[in-house]
Amino acid sequence: MQDRDTLTNPTTAICSSCKRREPFFFRSYSGESLCRRCFTSSIEEKVRATISRYQMLKFDERIAVAVSGGKDSLSLLHIFAKREQKFPRASLIAVTVDEGIKGYRDEALKIAGDNCKKLGIKHVVVSFKDLFGYSLDEIARKKKLKEKGGLTMCACCGILRRKALNIAARENHVDKLATAHTLDDETQTILLNIFHGDVWRIAKEKPVTDKIHPKLVQRIKPFCEIPEKETALYAYVKNMKFQSKPCPYASDAMRNDVRNMLNKMEEKHVGLKFTIFKSVERVREALDEIDTRENLTECRECGEPTSEEICRACHFLEELRLDV
After folding, report:
1. Residues 183, 125: one domain?
2. DSSP state letters, 58-82
3. Are residues 26 and 56 in the same domain?
4. Are 125 and 4 found together in one domain?
5. Is residue 101 located within the same domain as residue 26?
6. Are the C-beta atoms of residues 296 and 212 closer than 8 Å to each other?
7. Is 244 inside a domain boundary?
8. Count of alpha carbons within 13 Å of 50, Cβ hemisphere only?
9. Number of domains in the chain
10. What is the pLDDT along the chain (324 residues), one digit of tens a residue?
11. Which domain covers residue 22, as residue numbers?
Protein backbone atom coordinates (compact mmCIF):
# COMPACT_ATOMS: atom_id res chain seq x y z
CA MET A 1 0.00 0.00 0.00
CA GLN A 2 1.06 3.60 -0.53
CA ASP A 3 2.43 5.63 2.41
CA ARG A 4 2.47 2.58 4.61
CA ASP A 5 3.70 4.50 7.67
CA THR A 6 0.52 6.59 7.68
CA LEU A 7 -1.56 3.42 7.55
CA THR A 8 0.15 1.45 10.31
CA ASN A 9 1.28 4.22 12.68
CA PRO A 10 -1.74 6.26 13.77
CA THR A 11 -1.12 9.06 16.26
CA THR A 12 -3.56 7.83 18.92
CA ALA A 13 -4.08 4.50 20.70
CA ILE A 14 -7.82 4.35 19.94
CA CYS A 15 -10.00 5.26 16.96
CA SER A 16 -10.89 8.96 16.87
CA SER A 17 -14.42 8.12 15.80
CA CYS A 18 -15.71 5.15 17.81
CA LYS A 19 -13.33 5.63 20.78
CA ARG A 20 -13.19 1.84 21.19
CA ARG A 21 -11.17 0.00 18.57
CA GLU A 22 -7.52 0.18 17.66
CA PRO A 23 -6.85 2.52 14.70
CA PHE A 24 -4.95 1.43 11.62
CA PHE A 25 -5.17 4.52 9.38
CA PHE A 26 -4.11 8.11 10.01
CA ARG A 27 -5.89 10.72 7.86
CA SER A 28 -3.22 13.41 7.81
CA TYR A 29 -5.35 16.23 6.38
CA SER A 30 -7.99 15.88 9.11
CA GLY A 31 -5.90 14.52 11.98
CA GLU A 32 -8.14 11.46 12.44
CA SER A 33 -6.91 8.01 13.44
CA LEU A 34 -9.48 5.46 12.31
CA CYS A 35 -10.14 1.77 12.82
CA ARG A 36 -11.07 -0.35 9.82
CA ARG A 37 -14.80 -0.19 10.45
CA CYS A 38 -14.88 3.57 10.99
CA PHE A 39 -12.61 4.13 7.99
CA THR A 40 -14.92 2.26 5.59
CA SER A 41 -17.96 3.98 7.11
CA SER A 42 -16.27 7.36 6.61
CA ILE A 43 -15.72 6.67 2.90
CA GLU A 44 -19.35 5.64 2.43
CA GLU A 45 -20.49 8.73 4.35
CA LYS A 46 -18.24 10.96 2.21
CA VAL A 47 -19.88 9.55 -0.92
CA ARG A 48 -23.35 10.12 0.55
CA ALA A 49 -22.44 13.69 1.50
CA THR A 50 -20.98 14.42 -1.95
CA ILE A 51 -24.09 13.06 -3.69
CA SER A 52 -26.23 15.26 -1.45
CA ARG A 53 -24.06 18.40 -1.74
CA TYR A 54 -24.05 18.40 -5.53
CA GLN A 55 -27.56 16.93 -5.87
CA MET A 56 -26.17 14.16 -8.03
CA LEU A 57 -29.04 11.68 -7.80
CA LYS A 58 -32.76 11.31 -7.30
CA PHE A 59 -34.32 8.39 -5.44
CA ASP A 60 -35.79 6.69 -8.52
CA GLU A 61 -33.07 7.01 -11.16
CA ARG A 62 -31.39 4.31 -13.25
CA ILE A 63 -27.64 4.58 -12.72
CA ALA A 64 -24.70 3.16 -14.66
CA VAL A 65 -21.31 2.86 -12.98
CA ALA A 66 -18.30 2.91 -15.31
CA VAL A 67 -16.28 -0.09 -14.12
CA SER A 68 -12.75 -0.64 -15.42
CA GLY A 69 -11.79 -3.41 -13.02
CA GLY A 70 -9.44 -1.16 -11.05
CA LYS A 71 -9.60 -0.27 -7.36
CA ASP A 72 -11.47 3.04 -7.74
CA SER A 73 -14.29 1.88 -9.99
CA LEU A 74 -14.86 -1.35 -8.05
CA SER A 75 -14.98 0.55 -4.75
CA LEU A 76 -17.59 2.87 -6.25
CA LEU A 77 -19.60 -0.07 -7.59
CA HIS A 78 -19.69 -1.77 -4.18
CA ILE A 79 -20.70 1.45 -2.43
CA PHE A 80 -23.48 2.06 -4.95
CA ALA A 81 -24.68 -1.53 -4.64
CA LYS A 82 -24.96 -1.00 -0.89
CA ARG A 83 -26.69 2.34 -1.40
CA GLU A 84 -29.23 0.83 -3.81
CA GLN A 85 -30.63 -1.34 -1.01
CA LYS A 86 -31.97 1.85 0.61
CA PHE A 87 -33.55 3.06 -2.64
CA PRO A 88 -35.69 0.22 -4.05
CA ARG A 89 -37.07 2.42 -6.84
CA ALA A 90 -33.56 3.06 -8.18
CA SER A 91 -31.70 0.60 -10.40
CA LEU A 92 -28.03 -0.02 -11.09
CA ILE A 93 -25.94 -1.45 -13.93
CA ALA A 94 -22.20 -1.56 -14.63
CA VAL A 95 -20.59 -0.58 -17.93
CA THR A 96 -17.09 -1.67 -18.95
CA VAL A 97 -15.27 -0.46 -22.06
CA ASP A 98 -13.10 -3.08 -23.75
CA GLU A 99 -10.50 -0.97 -25.54
CA GLY A 100 -8.81 -4.06 -26.93
CA ILE A 101 -5.48 -4.09 -25.07
CA LYS A 102 -4.10 -7.62 -25.14
CA GLY A 103 -2.86 -8.95 -21.82
CA TYR A 104 -4.30 -6.00 -19.91
CA ARG A 105 -8.00 -5.51 -20.50
CA ASP A 106 -8.74 -9.26 -20.55
CA GLU A 107 -7.90 -9.57 -16.86
CA ALA A 108 -9.89 -6.44 -15.98
CA LEU A 109 -12.98 -7.68 -17.83
CA LYS A 110 -12.97 -10.90 -15.83
CA ILE A 111 -12.52 -9.05 -12.53
CA ALA A 112 -15.31 -6.60 -13.37
CA GLY A 113 -17.59 -9.45 -14.46
CA ASP A 114 -16.92 -11.47 -11.31
CA ASN A 115 -17.72 -8.49 -9.08
CA CYS A 116 -20.95 -7.76 -10.94
CA LYS A 117 -21.99 -11.39 -10.65
CA LYS A 118 -21.26 -11.38 -6.92
CA LEU A 119 -23.32 -8.21 -6.42
CA GLY A 120 -26.14 -9.31 -8.75
CA ILE A 121 -25.64 -6.34 -11.08
CA LYS A 122 -26.15 -6.37 -14.85
CA HIS A 123 -22.80 -6.01 -16.61
CA VAL A 124 -22.66 -4.32 -20.01
CA VAL A 125 -19.45 -4.56 -22.06
CA VAL A 126 -18.89 -2.32 -25.07
CA SER A 127 -15.79 -2.62 -27.26
CA PHE A 128 -13.79 -0.25 -29.43
CA LYS A 129 -13.62 -2.93 -32.11
CA ASP A 130 -17.41 -3.24 -32.38
CA LEU A 131 -18.10 0.49 -32.18
CA PHE A 132 -15.23 1.97 -34.16
CA GLY A 133 -13.77 -0.88 -36.20
CA TYR A 134 -10.39 -0.85 -34.44
CA SER A 135 -9.05 -2.07 -31.14
CA LEU A 136 -6.61 0.21 -29.32
CA ASP A 137 -3.80 -2.21 -30.11
CA GLU A 138 -4.66 -1.94 -33.82
CA ILE A 139 -4.74 1.85 -33.58
CA ALA A 140 -1.30 1.82 -31.95
CA ARG A 141 0.09 -0.36 -34.73
CA LYS A 142 -1.48 1.60 -37.57
CA LYS A 143 -0.56 5.09 -36.45
CA LYS A 144 2.44 6.05 -34.39
CA LEU A 145 0.78 9.19 -33.12
CA LYS A 146 3.39 10.52 -30.76
CA GLU A 147 6.16 10.25 -33.32
CA LYS A 148 4.07 12.33 -35.71
CA GLY A 149 3.50 15.01 -33.10
CA GLY A 150 -0.18 14.21 -32.76
CA LEU A 151 -2.26 12.93 -29.86
CA THR A 152 -0.78 10.48 -27.38
CA MET A 153 -2.37 7.06 -27.12
CA CYS A 154 -3.92 8.08 -23.78
CA ALA A 155 -5.58 11.08 -25.42
CA CYS A 156 -6.90 8.96 -28.30
CA CYS A 157 -8.22 6.34 -25.90
CA GLY A 158 -9.91 9.02 -23.79
CA ILE A 159 -11.77 10.46 -26.79
CA LEU A 160 -13.06 7.05 -27.87
CA ARG A 161 -13.78 5.81 -24.34
CA ARG A 162 -15.95 8.83 -23.47
CA LYS A 163 -17.97 8.27 -26.61
CA ALA A 164 -18.29 4.52 -25.95
CA LEU A 165 -19.49 5.09 -22.37
CA ASN A 166 -22.08 7.61 -23.48
CA ILE A 167 -23.43 5.29 -26.18
CA ALA A 168 -23.62 2.33 -23.78
CA ALA A 169 -25.29 4.41 -21.06
CA ARG A 170 -27.87 5.88 -23.44
CA GLU A 171 -28.70 2.56 -25.09
CA ASN A 172 -29.32 1.08 -21.63
CA HIS A 173 -31.65 3.96 -20.76
CA VAL A 174 -29.78 5.25 -17.72
CA ASP A 175 -30.35 8.66 -16.15
CA LYS A 176 -26.84 9.17 -14.79
CA LEU A 177 -23.40 7.73 -15.51
CA ALA A 178 -21.18 7.55 -12.41
CA THR A 179 -17.41 7.55 -12.89
CA ALA A 180 -14.83 6.88 -10.17
CA HIS A 181 -12.76 10.03 -10.63
CA THR A 182 -11.03 10.70 -7.31
CA LEU A 183 -9.71 13.93 -5.82
CA ASP A 184 -6.33 13.06 -7.36
CA ASP A 185 -7.88 12.69 -10.83
CA GLU A 186 -9.72 15.98 -10.47
CA THR A 187 -6.70 18.01 -9.40
CA GLN A 188 -4.56 16.42 -12.12
CA THR A 189 -7.17 17.34 -14.74
CA ILE A 190 -7.35 20.92 -13.46
CA LEU A 191 -3.60 21.38 -13.88
CA LEU A 192 -3.54 19.58 -17.24
CA ASN A 193 -6.22 21.93 -18.58
CA ILE A 194 -4.13 24.90 -17.45
CA PHE A 195 -0.96 23.45 -19.00
CA HIS A 196 -2.81 22.82 -22.27
CA GLY A 197 -4.21 26.35 -22.28
CA ASP A 198 -7.82 25.12 -22.09
CA VAL A 199 -8.95 27.15 -19.08
CA TRP A 200 -12.62 27.13 -20.11
CA ARG A 201 -12.69 23.35 -19.81
CA ILE A 202 -12.12 23.75 -16.08
CA ALA A 203 -15.59 25.28 -15.87
CA LYS A 204 -17.10 22.29 -17.69
CA GLU A 205 -15.39 19.50 -15.72
CA LYS A 206 -17.89 19.62 -12.86
CA PRO A 207 -18.82 16.96 -10.27
CA VAL A 208 -22.15 16.85 -12.13
CA THR A 209 -22.13 17.70 -15.83
CA ASP A 210 -24.81 19.94 -17.29
CA LYS A 211 -27.69 18.39 -19.19
CA ILE A 212 -27.09 20.15 -22.49
CA HIS A 213 -28.16 17.61 -25.11
CA PRO A 214 -30.78 14.82 -25.07
CA LYS A 215 -28.23 12.28 -26.36
CA LEU A 216 -25.61 13.19 -23.75
CA VAL A 217 -25.99 11.24 -20.51
CA GLN A 218 -25.22 13.29 -17.41
CA ARG A 219 -22.08 12.22 -15.56
CA ILE A 220 -21.48 12.33 -11.85
CA LYS A 221 -18.28 11.94 -9.82
CA PRO A 222 -19.13 10.73 -6.29
CA PHE A 223 -15.42 10.23 -5.45
CA CYS A 224 -14.39 13.76 -6.46
CA GLU A 225 -13.51 14.73 -2.86
CA ILE A 226 -11.88 11.44 -1.81
CA PRO A 227 -8.11 10.90 -2.25
CA GLU A 228 -7.09 7.98 -4.45
CA LYS A 229 -5.11 6.47 -1.58
CA GLU A 230 -8.35 6.11 0.40
CA THR A 231 -10.35 4.47 -2.39
CA ALA A 232 -7.49 1.97 -2.75
CA LEU A 233 -7.50 1.32 0.98
CA TYR A 234 -11.29 0.87 0.94
CA ALA A 235 -10.92 -1.85 -1.71
CA TYR A 236 -8.13 -3.47 0.33
CA VAL A 237 -10.14 -3.47 3.58
CA LYS A 238 -13.16 -4.92 1.75
CA ASN A 239 -10.95 -7.70 0.30
CA MET A 240 -11.78 -6.81 -3.28
CA LYS A 241 -9.76 -8.33 -6.08
CA PHE A 242 -8.87 -5.58 -8.52
CA GLN A 243 -6.48 -5.06 -11.40
CA SER A 244 -3.29 -3.34 -10.28
CA LYS A 245 -1.32 -3.71 -13.52
CA PRO A 246 -0.83 -0.29 -15.22
CA CYS A 247 -2.03 0.28 -18.77
CA PRO A 248 0.85 -0.29 -21.22
CA TYR A 249 -0.04 2.92 -23.07
CA ALA A 250 -0.03 5.17 -19.98
CA SER A 251 3.72 5.83 -19.84
CA ASP A 252 3.70 8.63 -22.44
CA ALA A 253 0.93 10.66 -20.78
CA MET A 254 1.64 14.09 -19.27
CA ARG A 255 -0.79 13.10 -16.51
CA ASN A 256 1.93 10.86 -15.01
CA ASP A 257 4.24 13.85 -14.59
CA VAL A 258 1.45 15.93 -13.06
CA ARG A 259 0.51 13.06 -10.71
CA ASN A 260 4.09 12.71 -9.46
CA MET A 261 4.44 16.45 -8.98
CA LEU A 262 1.19 16.72 -6.99
CA ASN A 263 2.04 13.74 -4.80
CA LYS A 264 5.43 15.21 -3.91
CA MET A 265 3.86 18.56 -3.08
CA GLU A 266 1.10 16.90 -1.03
CA GLU A 267 3.75 15.20 1.11
CA LYS A 268 5.23 18.59 1.99
CA HIS A 269 1.97 20.56 2.07
CA VAL A 270 -0.80 18.35 3.45
CA GLY A 271 -4.22 19.18 2.05
CA LEU A 272 -2.91 20.84 -1.12
CA LYS A 273 -5.14 18.73 -3.39
CA PHE A 274 -8.22 19.78 -1.44
CA THR A 275 -7.10 23.41 -1.68
CA ILE A 276 -6.79 23.18 -5.48
CA PHE A 277 -10.18 21.48 -5.83
CA LYS A 278 -11.98 23.95 -3.53
CA SER A 279 -10.35 26.92 -5.27
CA VAL A 280 -11.60 25.76 -8.64
CA GLU A 281 -15.07 25.19 -7.16
CA ARG A 282 -15.14 28.90 -6.26
CA VAL A 283 -13.97 29.78 -9.77
CA ARG A 284 -16.78 27.67 -11.22
CA GLU A 285 -19.31 29.50 -9.08
CA ALA A 286 -18.09 32.79 -10.56
CA LEU A 287 -18.16 31.38 -14.08
CA ASP A 288 -21.74 30.16 -13.60
CA GLU A 289 -22.75 33.79 -14.03
CA ILE A 290 -21.33 33.52 -17.54
CA ASP A 291 -22.91 31.01 -19.90
CA THR A 292 -19.94 28.72 -20.62
CA ARG A 293 -22.05 25.84 -21.92
CA GLU A 294 -21.33 24.62 -25.42
CA ASN A 295 -24.02 24.76 -28.08
CA LEU A 296 -24.08 21.13 -29.09
CA THR A 297 -25.28 19.78 -32.37
CA GLU A 298 -25.09 16.23 -33.76
CA CYS A 299 -22.09 14.80 -35.58
CA ARG A 300 -22.57 14.62 -39.34
CA GLU A 301 -20.98 11.17 -39.38
CA CYS A 302 -22.33 9.32 -36.33
CA GLY A 303 -25.11 11.49 -34.89
CA GLU A 304 -23.49 11.79 -31.44
CA PRO A 305 -23.47 15.15 -29.61
CA THR A 306 -20.62 17.47 -30.58
CA SER A 307 -19.76 21.16 -30.66
CA GLU A 308 -18.27 20.76 -34.15
CA GLU A 309 -19.62 19.56 -37.47
CA ILE A 310 -17.79 16.25 -36.94
CA CYS A 311 -17.09 14.90 -33.42
CA ARG A 312 -13.51 14.39 -32.24
CA ALA A 313 -13.83 10.61 -32.34
CA CYS A 314 -15.02 10.53 -35.96
CA HIS A 315 -12.41 13.10 -36.94
CA PHE A 316 -9.67 10.99 -35.37
CA LEU A 317 -10.93 7.75 -36.97
CA GLU A 318 -11.09 9.43 -40.38
CA GLU A 319 -7.48 10.57 -40.00
CA LEU A 320 -6.53 7.04 -39.05
CA ARG A 321 -8.20 5.59 -42.12
CA LEU A 322 -6.52 8.16 -44.38
CA ASP A 323 -3.11 7.45 -42.87
CA VAL A 324 -3.60 3.73 -43.36
Report:
1. yes
2. -TT-EEEEE--SSHHHHHHHHHHHH
3. no
4. no
5. no
6. yes
7. yes
8. 24
9. 2
10. 444 434 556 667 899 999 999 999 999 999 999 999 999 999 999 999 999 999 999 999 999 999 999 999 999 999 999 999 899 899 999 999 999 999 889 899 999 999 999 999 999 999 999 999 999 999 988 866 445 556 788 889 999 999 999 999 999 999 999 999 999 999 999 999 999 888 778 877 889 998 889 999 999 999 999 999 999 999 999 999 999 888 888 876 788 899 999 999 999 999 999 999 999 988 887 766 665 566 889 999 999 999 899 999 999 999 888 754
11. 1-34
- Residue 210 CB partners (closer than 8 Å, separation 6+): 204, 218, 293
Would you say 74 and 46 are in contact if contact means Cβ atoms under 8 Å apart?
A: no
What is the pTM (predicted TM-score) of this model?
0.91
Q: Which residue type is seen at 62? A: R
Give Cβ neighbours of residue 56 (< 8 Å, ≥ 6 apart): 50, 176, 207, 208, 220, 222
